[in-house]
Amino acid sequence: MSVFDDFDEMFAGSADPADDMQFNTASYHRRIVILLIDVSGSTRFAEKGTRPIDELNRSLRALLPEIREQGRGPLRSVEFAVVTFGGDGVRAVTGDARRPEDELADDGGVFVPASDLDFDDLTASGTTPMAQALEFALRPGDRRVRYLADRHGLQTGQVRLVLFSDGEPNDVHREGRRRAGPREGEGDAQRGRGRGGHVCPLVP
To answer: Under DSSP, is residue 84 helix (H, G, I), strand (E, B) or coil?
Structure first.
């Protein structure tokens, strides 16, 4: 079972996750998508014979070329940023992540076209600062929306957050949970889908 199986439910299309990533691009000049990935130490431990971090890397190696290919077609107006959280803290792994935080959303920052989306295999360690990661991701996401509107006159719609995690956060911050959006109910806690976002579990 792939950690990306939930993409089919998330985008309501074919079984191919890249095919499902339409994001209503016809309605906007640009769409902003942030992948928020849990690389905490718990993903190193095997579930049903497979370590979640290994399954995640395998799935990403299969998915990224498809996203890049579709970035020259249906996803040409979609920009991605990838943020990881775990033993190395919270950090962006796409684009130029060395910039000061207030410049991450500028052109040439951490947001890259779908056709250029790429990053190295991920390693796992440490705790799960999920709330901190949510807040970190939302700040450049909001700034990118304003930047594209002010500098380029482009509409983006709501920032789309896609969270991949195998558990609950070690840090608790109500503001991060509030901004990520309310959960749809106790029965949907594993998937954790809220407004503008979706959680894909790293374990079946």
So the answer is: strand
- Please check whether residue 172 is in contact with residue 131, taking contact to mean a CB–CB distance below 8 angstroms: yes
DSSP string, 135-168: HHHHHHHHHHHHHHHHHH-----SPEEEEEESS-
User: What is the 8-class DSSP label of residue 4?
Assistant: T
Would you give per-residue pLDDT tens digits along the chain (204 residues)? 344 444 444 333 333 444 444 445 455 689 999 999 999 998 888 877 888 899 999 999 999 999 999 999 999 999 999 999 998 899 999 999 999 999 999 999 999 999 999 999 999 999 989 999 999 999 999 999 999 999 999 999 889 999 888 766 766 544 444 554 443 333 332 333 333 555 555 444
Amino acid sitting at position 185 = G
* Residues in a beta bridge with 104: none
Determine the straight-line distance between the first and last CA of the chain, rounded to whole angstroms: 7
| Dihedral in degrees, nearest 10, Cα atoms 15, 123, 101, 112 | -40
Give φ, ψ of 16 to 5 degrees. -85, 115
Q: In what helix (H) or strand (E) does residue 58 lie, and over which residues does it extend?
A: helix 52-70
List the one residue out of 68, 197, 58, 65 whose CA is nearest residue 122.
58
